[in-house]
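This entry is passed on directly below:
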Amino acid sequence: MCPETIYEAVYRGLIVPAGRANLRTGRTYRRRRGRGRSREGALKQSTTMKSIHQRPASVASRRQAGHWEGDLLVGAGQRSAIATLVERKTRLTLLVSLPDGHSAQAVGDALIGAFARLPVKLRRTLTWDQGNEMFHHERIEQQTGLEIYFADPHSPWQRGSNENTNGLLRQYLPKGTDLRVWTNQQLDQIAAELNARPRQCLNDSSPHQMMRRWERRTTPR
């Protein structure tokens, strides 16, 4: 049974009653995702997009660091946004400020800057949804060394780590707020708190601990 089937069953009340007691978001319906993009529309946007189904199988195993999931967290009236990045193996979260808006140019520039600050070994792949903000994906690939893959429309479970993290971030950055008021220092502090939180999926280690272990293993002695 796939995650989407389970979600649908819960929202229909077939497993447990849908509501705040059993669902963190408190919604009683399944909302379509992807900012209204259709598969046909996205493919017309760019014929060079690489589908998630072309992504190397090794990415799904989470055995290698450097594979990321990303998305936009959008503010009030879709007038502001920040980019959220989650590393699949360690669950490390990076928050990328978008002070100049979330056009394709602005998002491309911001992601290039964010990944340029990471070691080359942490720049392997990035999986995103099919939003217009990633129109410059080829430019991002050329300047970072990443291979960028796109999830299917309305398939948030294909970027599950990022989706779950965005849900946690809404506790800090509520819907209906202007995300431009948050400084880089404040966003770094929010990311630091998330990265210090132990995760059950990491055997109660935190993303920071997982990243330190990776650094020790990959640093020449």
Helices lie at 3-11, 39-45, 57-61, 104-116, 137-144, 160-169, 184-195, 207-218. The domain at 37-218 is CATH 3.30.420.10 (Nucleotidyltransferase; domain 5).
